[in-house]
Design goal:
By secondary structure, this protein is α/β, with parallel strands linked by helices. It has helices at 8-20, 23-30, 34-48, 64-87, 103-120, 172-178, 184-188, 223-231, 241-250, 279-297, and strands at 53-55, 60-62, 95-101, 124-130, 144-148, 157-164, 166-170, 193-195, 204-205, 211-212, 218-220, 237-240, 254-255, 265-271. The chain has 3 domains: 4-86, Winged helix-like DNA-binding domain superfamily/Winged helix DNA-binding domain (Arc Repressor Mutant, subunit A, Orthogonal Bundle), CATH 1.10.10.10; 95-161 and 265-296, D-Maltodextrin-Binding Protein, domain 2; 166-255, Periplasmic binding protein-like II (D-Maltodextrin-Binding Protein, domain 2). The chain has a 5-stranded mixed β-sheet with strand order 4-3-5-14-6. 30% of the residues are buried.
């Protein structure tokens, strides 16, 4: 029977290689040499009698056996790290915390994140990614990611932090050209700045069950881009209300059909820790939830 209990250091090297994409990057992450990482991976391959990577001069490609091992080992290593946090009884936050924020959320919490959270925890090394794409939490080694919208089926743990009120907005210049919509049928005829949905149509859903799939001259995968397109009169945008609240109040944007309720979208925290969630992850989730809920109430 193959015994991996004595191969912890080598397994960590393997997991870091998968997460970073190369022996060199894994070596930088672990403060060692590429040769040492390569030897650790080779050792695991000998123990298992299986090839974990296809090697070439340009890239490492994970084999089927390598993927199977990674899917089982990576969550266990995360549990070991989080168990250390709990047993250590840390009163302050320390270690590395890698998070991912969508652009709209980052714009409103970044100031407090740096001024309050980071400043209050000087022993915490933070890595903050700002992107609207769906990152691979395990492969890209994120501790926690925050995303707005329905959570696809996965093995990740999802915690709902808040509900985001949604609105439809347009610039006065666009409404001057096309007229102010009086109902859903009128709305569907207006050009939209559409949220880019890979492999699927952009749709707007209403709480009464109605839906439209409008056309439009531009697609964008970020709320910032949709907001800019709306402000320039390019199309109607479907956005979180707090993102455009100031624009509505100042008259730069007009809320359309406010009497028709739009379903709110959840703000979720996603992570791979199944049992013992590290203190630093829990603290970050509480911080983001409090910031967003305070902003939404304003």
């Amino acid at each position: 029977m193959t015994n991996l209990l004595t191969e912890t250091a080598n397994l960590i090297a393997f997991v870091r290689t998968v997460e970073t994409g190369s022996f060199s990057a894994a070596a930088r992450h672990m403060a060692t040499t590429p040769s040492a990482i390569s030897k650790s991976v080779a050792r695991i391959e000998r123990v298992l009698g299986a090839r974990l990577f296809l090697r070439s001069t340009r890239a490492l490609v994970l084999t089927y056996d390598g993927q199977m091992l990674f899917d089982r080992i990576a969550p266990l290593l995360r549990e070991l790290q989080s168990a250390g946090d709990v047993v250590g009884g840390q009163t302050g936050l320390s270690g590395r915390l890698k998070i991912s924020l969508p652009s709209e959320i980052a714009r409103v919490v970044m100031d407090a994140l740096l001024k309050d959270f980071a400043a209050s925890h000087p022993d915490l090394n933070m890595v903050v990614g700002v992107t609207d794409r769906f990152v691979d939490v395990i492969r890209e080694d994120y501790d926690v990611v925050f995303r707005v919208g329905r959570v696809p089926e996965s093995e990740l743990i999802a915690r709902k932090l808040s509900e985001m009120e949604m609105v439809l907005v347009a610039a006065p210049s666009l409404l001057k050209r096309y007229g102010n919509p009086m109902n859903i049928e009128d709305l569907a005829r207006l050009p939209f700045a559409k949220y880019y949905v890979p492999g699927g149509p952009f749709e707007v859903l209403f709480s009464n069950g109605s839906r439209i799939a409008p056309g439009g001259p531009i697609e964008c995968d970020s709320g910032f881009g949709l907001q800019a397109a709306a402000l320039h009169g390019i199309g109607v945008a479907h956005l979180m209300k707090f993102v455009v609240a100031d624009d509505i109040e100042a008259g730069r944007l007009v809320q359309l059909l406010p009497e028709l309720e739009l379903p709110s979208l959840p703000l979720n925290a996603l992570h791979g820790f199944r049992r013992s969630v590290p203190l630093r992850v829990r603290a970050m989730c509480e911080f983001i939830a409090n910031e967003i809920n305070n902003i939404s109430r304003q």
